[in-house]
């Protein structure tokens, strides 16, 4: 019996050495989870299937399980756009030749067709987006990077926050002449875009009227009349103010303004009939073949004030942009993958999902730092990162192996000593057997 007990101890010590050696070998493997060998004692059973009583000696040790430790590893930045780490619970979902596998290793890159894959050529799973960039949750798909240009968007709305100095006096030169700075008090330009992504400059000039609480605004695009680029005459609108310095919208009658911008019911200005233009070879201004935004351009100046402070533009925004080429990728903590374009725009092109399990110990390792679902693990809970029990995504980062090298080296010494001790048990039993044989 002692031979069997010692032999079981050798098997157990060898298993511990193998587990420790595997941990040490993977100390630099991204997303690797260390394992530990778990043992239990064993007793021989009597004929009735019960232990042999208080004098029963155990029959050795057996390996009960080799469990993986899913505690997190350190997360380190890499600077690579498609490197990802999970900060918290969960796994990346991958599609490998039709089967679904799960991993913590976030070393991803695009293949020749733009699909996001790992080093084993498995496809990263996530949610797609519709044509408006809205995520379509619920249906998993192979995430793909669309490298096509971002189509231009013609300007449809301009918002400005401007203060006009209430202490300013009417210009010394009249009438207004955009080429003479003495004929106006303040000016600034705003870039706007046509349907082909061509940039144009909307020029606005402000002239203090001789009376109080009143200014005149002159508007051109590229220095021309917006509706007729052959003319240099600007569009002209009055800006009345209350005694408190706010734009007096009550004094602004809604409707068409002769020679000026139309005033809408909400008291914003409407630029209709804009003809995007350019100079031809002969130096004449002609239409460039593009169009303005259907429905015209809204100019929101409701935040304009007249206070005793320097005339200044404190905020300005417009919703158009030129054609953009793909310049980079970023991933936020919710798993949204953004395509970054040269025109400064960002577009969501997909969302990475995370899966979690009721019993992670029930997962089956399949190599390549990946696992498969089993009956013991339960079905995966798949959803958006940073929701419920699912962790968040750390972009441009990777999770290190969670192997504690110092601890593993100590385990190596313990397993070695355990092996030697069990070998000594067998050696001692052999010596005793030799003694008995010699007595016969």
What's the total count of β strands?
30
Largest sheet: 11 strands, antiparallel
Q: In whole angstroms, how far apart are the ends?
A: 21 Å
Q: What ranges have pLDDT less than 50 throughout 5 or more consecutive residues?
A: none
Class by SSE composition: mainly beta
Percent in helix: 10-25%
The CATH architecture name of the largest domain reads: Sandwich
Q: Beta fraction of the residues?
A: 25-35%
Number of helices: 2
Rg of Cα set: 38 Å
Tell me the name of the CATH class of the largest domain.
Answer: Mainly Beta
Quick check: average pLDDT?
91
CATH superfamily membership of the largest domain, which one? Answer: Flagellar hook protein FlgE
Tell the overall outline. Answer: rod-shaped
Q: Could you name the CATH topology of the largest domain?
A: Tick-borne Encephalitis virus Glycoprotein, domain 1
Oligomer: single chain
Function: A flexible structure which links the flagellar filament to the drive apparatus in the basal body.
InterPro entries: Falgellar_hook_FlgE_sf, Flag_bb_rod_N, Flagellar_basal_body_rod_CS, Flagellar_FlgE/F/G, Flg_bb/hook_C_dom, FlgE/F/G-like, FlgE_D2, LlgE_F_G-like_D1
Family: Belongs to the flagella basal body rod proteins family.
Keywords: Bacterial flagellum, Cell projection, Cilium, Flagellum
């Amino acid at each position: 019996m002692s031979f069997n007990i010692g032999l079981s101890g050798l098997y157990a010590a060898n298993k511990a050495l193998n587990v420790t050696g595997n941990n040490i070998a993977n100390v630099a493997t991204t997303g690797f989870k260390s394992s530990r060998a778990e043992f239990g004692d064993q007793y021989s059973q009597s004929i009735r299937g019960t232990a042999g009583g208080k004098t029963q000696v155990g029959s050795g040790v057996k390996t009960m399980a080799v469990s993986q430790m899913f505690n997190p590893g350190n997360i380190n930045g890499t600077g690579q756009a498609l490197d990802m780490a999970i900060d918290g619970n969960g796994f990346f979902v991958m599609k490998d030749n039709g089967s679904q596998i799960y991993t913590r290793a976030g070393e991803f890159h695009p293949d020749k067709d733009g699909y996001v894959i790992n080093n084993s050529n498995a496809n990263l799973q996530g949610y797609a987006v519709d044509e408006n960039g809205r995520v379509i949750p619920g249906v998993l798909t192979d995430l793909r990077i669309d490298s096509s240009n971002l189509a231009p968007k013609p300007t449809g709305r301009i918002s400005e926050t401007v203060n006009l100095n209430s202490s300013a006096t009417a210009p010394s030169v009249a009438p207004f002449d955009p080429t003479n700075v003495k004929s106006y008090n303040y000016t600034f330009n705003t870039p706007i875009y046509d349907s082909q992504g061509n940039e144009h400059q909307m020029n606005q000039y402000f002239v203090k009227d001789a009376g109080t609480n009143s200014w005149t605004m002159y508007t051109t695009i590229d220095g021309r009349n917006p509706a007729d680029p052959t003319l240099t005459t600007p569009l002209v609108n009055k800006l009345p103010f209350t005694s408190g310095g706010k734009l007096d919208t009550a004094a602004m009658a809604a409707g068409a303004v002769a020679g000026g911008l139309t005033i809408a019911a909400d008291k914003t200005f409407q630029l209709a009939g804009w003809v995007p233009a350019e100079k031809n070879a002969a130096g004449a201004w002609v239409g460039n073949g593009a169009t303005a935004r259907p429905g015209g351009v809204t100019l929101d100046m409701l935040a304009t004030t007249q206070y005793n402070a320097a005339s200044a533009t404190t905020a300005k925004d417009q919703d158009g942009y030129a054609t953009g080429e793909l310049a980079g990728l970023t991933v936020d903590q919710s798993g949204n993958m953004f395509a970054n374009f040269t025109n400064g725009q960002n577009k969501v092109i997909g969302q990475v999902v995370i899966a979690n399990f009721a019993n992670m110990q029930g997962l089956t390792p399949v190599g390549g730092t990946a696992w498969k679902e089993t009956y013991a693990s339960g079905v995966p809970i798949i959803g958006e990162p940073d929701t419920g029990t699912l962790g968040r995504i750390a972009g441009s980062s990777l999770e290190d192996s969670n192997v504690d090298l110092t601890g593993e080296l100590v385990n190596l010494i313990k397993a070695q000593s355990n092996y030697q001790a069990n070998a000594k048990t067998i050696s001692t039993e052999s010596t005793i057997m030799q003694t008995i044989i010699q007595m016969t």
